[in-house]
Amino acid sequence: MPVPVPQQRSVPAAETSHGDLTLLVIEDDPAGTTITVPELSAAAGTRVRIRTARNLTEAARLLTDDVDCILLDLALPVAGSDSGPGDGPVPGRADELAALTHVLRIAPLHAVLALTAEDDTELAAEAVRVGAQDYLFRGELDARVLSRAIRYAVERKRADMAQHQLTESRLHAQENARLERGLLPTPLLDGSGLSFAARYRPGRSRALLGGDFYDVVRTPDGTVHAMIGDVCGHGPDEAALGVELRIAWRALTLAGLCGDELLSTLQQVLEHERQSEEIFATLCTVDIAPDGRRAGLCLAGHPAPLLARHGRPARLLPYEDGGPALGLLPRARWPRRQVELGAAWSLMMYTDGLIEGRVGTGGSERLGQDGMVAMVNGRLDEGLAGEELLEAAVAEVRELNGGELTDDVAVLLLGRDPERIRRGGGSAPRSRPASPVVVRPLGVQRPPL
Per the database record, which ranges form the Response regulatory domain (predicted)? Predict the structure, then answer.
């Protein structure tokens, strides 16, 4: 008769204590086991409770959470049972190990000792291969041997369970990492002549994605569209929403939307996808004209970009005409401001994680936009540019904060160098971010970002 599988808890009893132990003996003739409770207690130095079952049906009833180990007689008859899925016994021994495979199926979290005849070493070894933690021969069954075997089986089962959980955790982490890497953006800048670099650091521990997101694409008319945004919050739900908004932005941009029309549509996407009405997202979009000398800027509650030109300090672009963050006002509008970039320039877009780190004694103040501008100009005076500048800026923000930043940080850098364009330098490759090639003038002039 099939035996119902009892409810198993997630942590076996073996992990709870090194004191009292409970042994479930499954044997057709329990009286044949000469070991008594007092003998076991004296040998183990602890109290051992023994339960006995004459068949698998009775064993299933006695198999409760407080059982630490099962002693199974391999000679126990099994009526109408099958070995079930997984690694089964070798051909020809299926009947002899049917009881063991049945017990392993109904008690996957318990340590199991196999009991067999002394002259059947091959069957005992096969029992361990199938899943038992150890085996014992009837002829050597005394209190000391059984006590030691119980302890060993319990510890080995615990180690096996820990290794199994660790392996599952690693596989799960690798799967998540592959998924998150696949969701990171690939800039589409072929033919633009612009350079590109980016740095991304999620605030969540051991994560690749956070609530910050960015993207850069070039449309068929030659316009380069760049975007950076930040979903409020730092959890996996916010990271997923950030990916959705980024993909929606790319689709809407490639479909020809821009400025207020694009942001209004993107707000509808946010309103439909967010978990609660309290979730909002800030956004900064820039559309750079095909000649690379001017751009349109839209701000939705987001910090203004930083622009650097040859011979001039880096400065923030105007932000007075910005609109509210997406998701705050149902019929909001986001004006598009025209910005003159010039012939050679670098444009740095960032999220507030870069400017909200603590500075000063005691960490009572935040870096802020003014502090970031001063920090970047200091690095420009040192001659840093491109990826080196981004790396130095993020590292300095962490150092000023006195440790790892708790908020997500995303920074991207777009640049235009006429000399590079004339030399036919082309644009950054699609497969990975590329450092801008900077021609640094002599004298005291500042290099571009």
Answer: 22-153
Residue spans of alpha helices (H) in 218-360: 236-254, 259-273
Tokens of 409: 């940080």
Report residue 104: phi and psi, to 5°.
Answer: -65, -30
Q: Please, how many CA atoms are within 13 Å of residue 433, restricted to the half-sphere of its CB?
A: 20
What is the CB neighbour count within 10 angstroms for residue 382?
Answer: 12
| Cα-Cα end-to-end distance for the chain | 77
Which of 73, 63, 72, 71 has its CA nearest to residue 13? 63
Mean pLDDT across the chain, nearest whole number? 81
pLDDT above 70 for 378: yes
Residue environment code for 158-180, b if the CB has 16+ CB neighbours within 10 A, otherwise e? beebeeeeeeeeeeeeeeeeeeb
**Helix 98-106 with 121-130: angle, nearest 10 deg:** 30
Query: What contacts 427, CB < 8 A, 6 or more positions away?
Result: 189, 190, 191, 192, 193, 194, 195, 196
Local structure of residue 323 (DSSP, 8 states): B
The answer to whether residue 272 scores a pLDDT higher than 90 is yes
d(CA 337, CA 304): 12
Q: Could you tell me what percent of the chain has a pLDDT over 70? A: 78
pLDDT at 70 over 70: yes
Q: Are 405 and 172 in contact (CB under 8 A)?
A: no
Closest CA to 50 of 76, 18, 15, 21: 21
Tell me the C-alpha to C-alpha distance, in Å, between residue 24 and each of 102, 112, 145, 404: 15, 9, 16, 52
Q: Are 113 and 71 in contact (CB under 8 A)?
A: yes
Dist. CA 219–CA 223, nearest whole Å: 6
Give the tens place of pLDDT for each residue, 82-118: 444 444 444 445 578 999 999 999 999 899 999 988 8
d(CA 96, CA 149): 22
| Closest alpha carbon to 368 in 379, 354, 378 | 354
